[in-house]
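Local shape tokens:
==================
===
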Amino acid sequence: MMLLVFFCCLIQPDKIVAILIFPTSYTKIRYVYVWHAITGYWGGVRPGADGMEHYQSKMQYPVSSPGVQKNEPCEAFNSIADNGLGLVDPDKVFSFYNELHSYLASAGVDGVKVDVQNILEALGGGHGGRVLLSRKYQQALEASIARNFRDNGIICCMSHNTDNLYSSKRNAVVRASDDFWPRDPASHTIHIASVAYNTVFLGEFMQPDWDMFHSVHPMAEYHAAARAVGGCAIYVSDKPGNHDFDLLRKLVLPDGSILRAKLPGRPTGDCLFSDPARDGKSILKIWNLNAHSGVIGAFNCQGAGWCREGKKNLIHDVQPGTITGAVRGRDVSRLQEVAGDGWNGDVVVYSHVAGDVTVLPKDAALPVTLKPREYEVFTVVPLKRLPNGASFAPIGLIGMFNSGGAVTEVRCAGGAGVEVKVRGAGTVGAYSSARPKRVAVDSEAVGFSYDDGSGLAMFQVGVPERELYSWTVSIEC
């Protein structure tokens, strides 16, 4: 697997200490990112510390607005407000970032996760206000990232204040939600819903980040399915040696790559003005697009929400009911873009959990019923009409959450033939209205199964020797 490891950077006088704990058997780590706060550490940089005088940091005491304090009092913020923060002079902060990042880069670090960014909006006094302070810090941060790390190696976190968002010109990846809280049962459904709705805004100019999750957890599949349709990077924060590899293999291919959808995952149009966490009736549907298909994640998020009195997420319904909704081809808003000319709106829908294949005419609905904290992932494939009258739709790797992400190319090859390129390894599924006469992978005929009732044809592809390799599959219908 391709591993991305985050660890903490402590800034001390005359040295920078990076702390990382993981088994020495993890020999295939390819990328390492280091965590630090936008002010260096939670408490900033100590004023006058030996070797750090040139940063000209000064103790400041952040002041939060009454509205923020009333809505969500924060122990971490209150601690900083009481004890103060050593804020590097905004005119010296590029020097601070550059020295920090150049040291990390020289040690082989590939990028940084820069946290606690919203603290700047409470530190604007004496610096021209919060907007000017945030702008100076963001400009310095981006300049240092560009100088020291390839591929714009930064993930932004705790940065939803508009001062930071609108001052960012190069930063591309931004956390779109609160943390994954493994021990808080109220948090999991809210996590999925909040990222989806935040992405309506953030996804227009940033790449939303869904945060880490545990692959060994009662809600692991729920979180994994959401990441699969989120169009985001996949992170797990498992305890070393404690992994559910069967689950991870639904997200990650043998070469370590993922079947990442093309866009940030957003709520479907009919979900925009519903409340899938509180109204007791609405399913949350999140749509995305692949190269030749769409994908929809459906989630029962009912039962928990933010409590205005308790100032935290609470379960308000310990036994939320089973809810019913529907999936349609038009739920994938931009499916026409990948369907090609001549598409009449008909789709084939593959249900990941149920394993069902359904042909949906244009505007027809597929009923969906979900119990509390259940999910389903639907691969939505435009139905192609072949010159010989048969209908065909390549589903992809049916063992993956985002099956259609494995299909990289589709083209007609003669009157009854289709050529499909597929990444990865495992069981490939395709819908055909007629039993295929022949299936070949890289020009070699392979065995396949065909279900007359559903039209599902299945066959196997092995583990490719090269990374990011696409098998060439020829199907004669």
